[in-house]
Amino acid sequence: MRVELVTIGDELLLGDTVNGNAAWIGRRLAEHGLEVTRSVVVGDELDVIIEAVTEALARADAVITTGGLGPTYDDLTRDALAKAAGAALVRDPGLERRLRERVAAAGRELQPMALRMADVPDGAGILVNSAGSAAGLRVELEGGAVYALPGVPFEMRTMIDEVVLPELAGEHRVARRTLRTALLWESVVATRLAPVEAMDGIKLAYLPDSPEVRIRISATGPDVEARLAEAERQARELLGDAVYGTGEETLDRVVHGLLAERSATVAAAESLTGGLIGAELTRMPGSSATFAGGIVAYATALKEQLLGVPADLLEAHGAVHPDVAAAMAVGVRERLGATYGVAVTGVAGPDAQDGRPVGTIFVGVASPGGEPRVASPSLPVSGTSPENRAVIRRMTVAHALEQLRRVILGLGTGPAQKE
Amino acid sequence: MRVELVTIGDELLLGDTVNGNAAWIGRRLAEHGLEVTRSVVVGDELDVIIEAVTEALARADAVITTGGLGPTYDDLTRDALAKAAGAALVRDPGLERRLRERVAAAGRELQPMALRMADVPDGAGILVNSAGSAAGLRVELEGGAVYALPGVPFEMRTMIDEVVLPELAGEHRVARRTLRTALLWESVVATRLAPVEAMDGIKLAYLPDSPEVRIRISATGPDVEARLAEAERQARELLGDAVYGTGEETLDRVVHGLLAERSATVAAAESLTGGLIGAELTRMPGSSATFAGGIVAYATALKEQLLGVPADLLEAHGAVHPDVAAAMAVGVRERLGATYGVAVTGVAGPDAQDGRPVGTIFVGVASPGGEPRVASPSLPVSGTSPENRAVIRRMTVAHALEQLRRVILGLGTGPAQKE
Question: Domain MoaB/Mog: where (chains A, B) (predicted)?
């Protein structure tokens, strides 16, 4: 079963919005053994939408569109599908009633424009949207079915799960597994995995996102599950403790799981990351069992006041120093009464700070009994792009979580550290 | 000048990676008056890449590809462009030398596989990558030029700015402006702006991202700049204080600017957002001038210990209560010595808390002199999707920043509040 995506909206071409919908749909369909073979973005133009949908159906078995189902006049998907099907747009009484009820329940007045969301190409199937106002459509065209979904992510996602997948889900012919690693360079991973790459019916893909590399193992042919298991076994042996999880087991989930197993908690002391570590550690539902809280000591003076970092240390070396990271970790652990404390200090840029270049970071981890441990990861950042700041902050969060994982498991600081 | 994008990589189709590159390129080209008219994602398959590039060049004047220039065997862009051009791949001595130098400088050994990054289709132009290892390529095919760039975002971005834009930048024929609003529903915005929509040569597009709606005004025809200015003037008059900025002026930048003008600072007390508000307020370079720090009191007991929220208040009402939001804002402002304090408490889900349903949030803002103010925004979230948690957290951050903006400017809490 080959599926193509057509995501619709000038905002996507202009880059006002990132196409997270396409990524999410690709992932979800892959989980169900369906393959997205191409993904196209087109603007809010009637004829271009018709052309893209028609071309996609010539190659694929089904097409999913997102966007263009809202109430405003740049929402053209309904019109495009009606024209492609040679059908008129008709107002659906059930949809109109539902719209009026939703608006009334919110104590609002219905804008006449909103009634466009009750129009459907004559003969099209209506896909219930339990999460929002705009219904989806199923339109049968020459070549296959088009599933038109709204662009609002949580509405689209609900409808994929509740409506589209139950209709499309086919049988697996490819088995896939993703291994997640941290602290190894992509070329090191690829070189180590050469023997797995050479296995019959096995294909590897590398997805670097420093300091992480995900490796997607795809198996085809007879006994795909056994092949995949053997490839995974060999890959794990070759990569060792750099493998921290599989599939959707992101670092925050893995750390949450490790802490939960031990009935332990963590507190975060942040500087350049401004709160991102705490945000990451609270993504998971149930994170209140493992995350106590955090202190963002952005101003240097607050590192002393809120975390007890010795003033003479800050005076002698500035805020970006391994001993400061250690003291922050110890301070936040003690003051928030957590099992572990994790702390970062560093220079996100664009300017150097305290004589340290942009990209310098120190990660401290404090644990029950014993000295705090500090890692000094080497970040692959060069040049003076203003984008670097966001990249450095994101990498710092991953290094903090990975160092916390390594301390919990009794592992060393690992590769990719500065000398 | 029409440009199409071909972004390459199984990881994009499978959704392991979100296509942020396409969004960024669309935005950057639009800023320079260039139009991305279509964007296609294809997997790591030689013939599919060739087909997509060829089709794109048949419609557009130039094609930009990203991805597939790395060292591993699933990196096929070089091979595809060589085949499309009918040229052999040859090793470039200058690129090889540069690769060897970079690796030596990092104190590493060159993996033989990495040398693939020195191969170029015979006759192709080499695009310097000042931010990383993989060079880009300019290949002239029938129909126009293909610019092949690496998929690593900060490398790709650097090369767009340093290499591609200087070559492609054409003259403006469309003038665009984006107004950013908060707290108004999309249909309310669209209804109010009907008179602007009716203006000659003016097109409006709505980009909702609750609680924000961006409105992109496009002007065409003679005197585009004057038309655009008049449309913007009328739109601002119709939307009033809901307009908080234009273009790339995100809420965090606007708040940073307002604070900086007043030599004022803010401190954040967070609960359900786990640090996201602090992270947002420190995205900007220079944010240390306006952001003092934050306290993430995730565990309820820490709201008393770290922020001084009265214990009897927490006992009587739980952590999700307007008075708790007010006390958190006052507490963080005082303890961190900031001009303003902003605080949030609420229920991100998936389960209700303290008898409050998922999606309940309270935003407190404390300022110099006067009582703290609490807003209770109504979030358009329904259903029980596990995605809701992330959506609620993101909306909460935007409401916190918007309420802070409104307090700084002396505005009321605005629409979209619960009764």
Answer: 4-171
